[in-house]
Amino acid sequence: xxxxxxxxxxxxxxxxxxxxxxxxxxxxxxxxxxxxxxxxxxxxxxxxxxxxxxxxxxxxxxxxxxxxxxxxxxxxxxxxxxxxxxxxxxxxxxxxxxxxxxxxxxxxxxxxxxxxxxxxxxxxxxxxxxxxxxxxxxxxxxxxxxxxxxxxxxxxxxxxxxxxxxxxxxxxxxxxxxxxxxxxxxx
Length: 187
Prior knowledge:
The protein has helices at residues 3-27, 35-42, 46-52, 56-80, 84-97, 99-107, 111-133, 139-162, 169-184. By secondary structure, the chain is mostly helical. The model has no long low-confidence stretch (mean pLDDT 82).
Protein backbone atom coordinates (compact mmCIF):
# COMPACT_ATOMS: atom_id res chain seq x y z
CA UNK A 1 0.00 0.00 0.00
CA UNK A 2 1.22 3.49 -0.82
CA UNK A 3 2.64 5.09 2.34
CA UNK A 4 1.39 8.58 1.41
CA UNK A 5 -2.19 7.36 1.00
CA UNK A 6 -1.99 5.61 4.35
CA UNK A 7 -0.62 8.78 5.92
CA UNK A 8 -3.45 10.82 4.42
CA UNK A 9 -6.03 8.37 5.75
CA UNK A 10 -4.49 8.45 9.19
CA UNK A 11 -4.37 12.25 9.10
CA UNK A 12 -8.00 12.33 7.96
CA UNK A 13 -9.11 9.98 10.74
CA UNK A 14 -7.26 11.96 13.39
CA UNK A 15 -8.60 15.24 12.02
CA UNK A 16 -12.18 13.95 12.09
CA UNK A 17 -11.74 12.81 15.70
CA UNK A 18 -10.16 16.12 16.64
CA UNK A 19 -12.97 18.12 15.04
CA UNK A 20 -15.58 15.93 16.72
CA UNK A 21 -14.03 16.24 20.18
CA UNK A 22 -13.89 20.03 19.82
CA UNK A 23 -17.58 20.08 18.84
CA UNK A 24 -18.50 17.89 21.80
CA UNK A 25 -16.42 20.02 24.19
CA UNK A 26 -18.61 22.98 23.27
CA UNK A 27 -21.59 21.06 24.64
CA UNK A 28 -20.17 19.15 27.62
CA UNK A 29 -17.19 18.46 29.86
CA UNK A 30 -14.54 16.03 28.71
CA UNK A 31 -15.47 13.50 31.41
CA UNK A 32 -18.99 13.33 29.95
CA UNK A 33 -17.81 12.35 26.45
CA UNK A 34 -17.71 8.66 25.60
CA UNK A 35 -15.58 7.09 22.90
CA UNK A 36 -18.77 5.71 21.31
CA UNK A 37 -20.32 9.18 21.16
CA UNK A 38 -17.12 10.71 19.79
CA UNK A 39 -16.77 8.06 17.09
CA UNK A 40 -20.40 8.47 16.05
CA UNK A 41 -19.93 12.24 15.78
CA UNK A 42 -16.74 11.76 13.73
CA UNK A 43 -18.26 8.96 11.67
CA UNK A 44 -15.22 6.83 12.56
CA UNK A 45 -15.39 3.32 14.00
CA UNK A 46 -14.18 2.61 17.53
CA UNK A 47 -11.42 0.33 16.29
CA UNK A 48 -9.87 3.21 14.39
CA UNK A 49 -10.07 5.37 17.50
CA UNK A 50 -8.31 2.75 19.65
CA UNK A 51 -5.67 2.25 16.97
CA UNK A 52 -4.36 5.75 17.75
CA UNK A 53 -5.62 6.63 21.25
CA UNK A 54 -6.23 4.84 24.54
CA UNK A 55 -9.07 7.16 25.62
CA UNK A 56 -10.47 10.68 25.19
CA UNK A 57 -7.83 12.16 27.49
CA UNK A 58 -5.08 10.60 25.38
CA UNK A 59 -6.61 12.18 22.27
CA UNK A 60 -6.66 15.60 23.94
CA UNK A 61 -3.14 15.12 25.28
CA UNK A 62 -1.83 14.27 21.80
CA UNK A 63 -3.64 17.25 20.26
CA UNK A 64 -2.15 19.57 22.89
CA UNK A 65 1.38 18.17 22.54
CA UNK A 66 1.34 18.26 18.74
CA UNK A 67 0.22 21.87 18.85
CA UNK A 68 2.72 22.92 21.53
CA UNK A 69 5.56 21.25 19.65
CA UNK A 70 4.65 23.00 16.41
CA UNK A 71 4.00 26.32 18.14
CA UNK A 72 7.07 26.32 20.44
CA UNK A 73 9.27 28.27 18.04
CA UNK A 74 6.52 30.80 17.38
CA UNK A 75 5.79 31.16 21.10
CA UNK A 76 9.48 31.70 21.88
CA UNK A 77 9.67 34.32 19.13
CA UNK A 78 6.54 36.06 20.42
CA UNK A 79 7.82 36.31 23.97
CA UNK A 80 11.22 37.53 22.79
CA UNK A 81 9.49 40.62 21.36
CA UNK A 82 10.48 43.65 23.42
CA UNK A 83 7.41 45.75 22.56
CA UNK A 84 4.50 44.61 24.74
CA UNK A 85 1.83 45.64 22.26
CA UNK A 86 3.53 43.78 19.38
CA UNK A 87 3.98 40.74 21.62
CA UNK A 88 0.24 40.63 22.34
CA UNK A 89 -0.67 41.18 18.68
CA UNK A 90 1.49 38.20 17.66
CA UNK A 91 0.17 36.10 20.53
CA UNK A 92 -3.48 36.88 19.74
CA UNK A 93 -2.95 36.11 16.05
CA UNK A 94 -1.53 32.71 17.01
CA UNK A 95 -4.41 32.11 19.41
CA UNK A 96 -7.03 33.28 16.91
CA UNK A 97 -5.63 30.94 14.26
CA UNK A 98 -5.85 28.05 16.74
CA UNK A 99 -9.01 28.98 18.69
CA UNK A 100 -10.28 25.50 19.36
CA UNK A 101 -7.00 24.25 20.76
CA UNK A 102 -6.47 27.34 22.90
CA UNK A 103 -10.04 27.20 24.18
CA UNK A 104 -9.46 23.58 25.14
CA UNK A 105 -6.19 24.46 26.87
CA UNK A 106 -7.53 27.50 28.73
CA UNK A 107 -10.73 25.76 29.80
CA UNK A 108 -9.03 22.53 30.91
CA UNK A 109 -8.50 21.70 34.56
CA UNK A 110 -4.76 21.53 33.83
CA UNK A 111 -4.57 24.91 32.13
CA UNK A 112 -2.10 26.38 34.62
CA UNK A 113 0.32 23.47 34.03
CA UNK A 114 0.04 23.88 30.27
CA UNK A 115 0.46 27.64 30.46
CA UNK A 116 3.51 27.27 32.69
CA UNK A 117 4.93 24.81 30.16
CA UNK A 118 4.46 27.40 27.40
CA UNK A 119 5.38 30.44 29.51
CA UNK A 120 8.44 28.83 31.13
CA UNK A 121 10.92 29.94 28.47
CA UNK A 122 9.23 33.35 28.37
CA UNK A 123 9.65 33.63 32.13
CA UNK A 124 13.38 32.99 31.91
CA UNK A 125 13.80 35.54 29.10
CA UNK A 126 11.63 38.07 30.93
CA UNK A 127 13.52 37.68 34.19
CA UNK A 128 16.85 38.17 32.48
CA UNK A 129 15.69 41.19 30.50
CA UNK A 130 13.58 42.87 33.14
CA UNK A 131 15.90 42.34 36.08
CA UNK A 132 18.82 43.82 34.17
CA UNK A 133 16.72 46.90 33.38
CA UNK A 134 15.28 47.36 36.89
CA UNK A 135 17.28 48.16 39.95
CA UNK A 136 16.17 46.96 43.34
CA UNK A 137 13.70 44.25 42.24
CA UNK A 138 14.30 40.71 43.39
CA UNK A 139 13.74 37.66 41.24
CA UNK A 140 11.19 36.46 43.81
CA UNK A 141 9.16 39.66 43.50
CA UNK A 142 9.35 39.45 39.73
CA UNK A 143 8.08 35.86 39.87
CA UNK A 144 4.92 37.06 41.63
CA UNK A 145 4.46 39.94 39.21
CA UNK A 146 5.01 37.64 36.22
CA UNK A 147 2.51 35.06 37.51
CA UNK A 148 -0.04 37.81 38.14
CA UNK A 149 0.42 39.16 34.62
CA UNK A 150 0.21 35.73 33.00
CA UNK A 151 -2.89 34.81 35.03
CA UNK A 152 -4.61 38.08 34.14
CA UNK A 153 -3.68 37.78 30.47
CA UNK A 154 -4.86 34.16 30.31
CA UNK A 155 -8.17 35.05 31.97
CA UNK A 156 -8.67 37.99 29.60
CA UNK A 157 -7.75 35.95 26.53
CA UNK A 158 -10.10 33.19 27.72
CA UNK A 159 -12.94 35.71 27.93
CA UNK A 160 -12.04 36.98 24.47
CA UNK A 161 -12.11 33.42 23.09
CA UNK A 162 -15.41 32.66 24.83
CA UNK A 163 -16.78 35.83 23.26
CA UNK A 164 -15.76 34.37 19.86
CA UNK A 165 -13.00 36.95 19.38
CA UNK A 166 -15.54 39.69 18.63
CA UNK A 167 -13.17 42.48 19.64
CA UNK A 168 -10.38 43.00 17.13
CA UNK A 169 -6.84 41.91 17.87
CA UNK A 170 -5.32 45.43 17.95
CA UNK A 171 -7.88 46.60 20.53
CA UNK A 172 -7.44 43.60 22.87
CA UNK A 173 -3.66 43.79 22.42
CA UNK A 174 -3.73 47.45 23.38
CA UNK A 175 -5.68 46.69 26.58
CA UNK A 176 -3.36 43.87 27.56
CA UNK A 177 -0.23 45.88 26.74
CA UNK A 178 -1.43 48.91 28.72
CA UNK A 179 -2.17 46.77 31.78
CA UNK A 180 1.15 44.96 31.53
CA UNK A 181 3.18 48.11 30.97
CA UNK A 182 1.43 49.91 33.84
CA UNK A 183 2.16 47.09 36.25
CA UNK A 184 5.78 46.84 35.12
CA UNK A 185 6.19 50.61 35.15
CA UNK A 186 7.19 50.71 31.48
CA UNK A 187 6.92 54.14 29.88
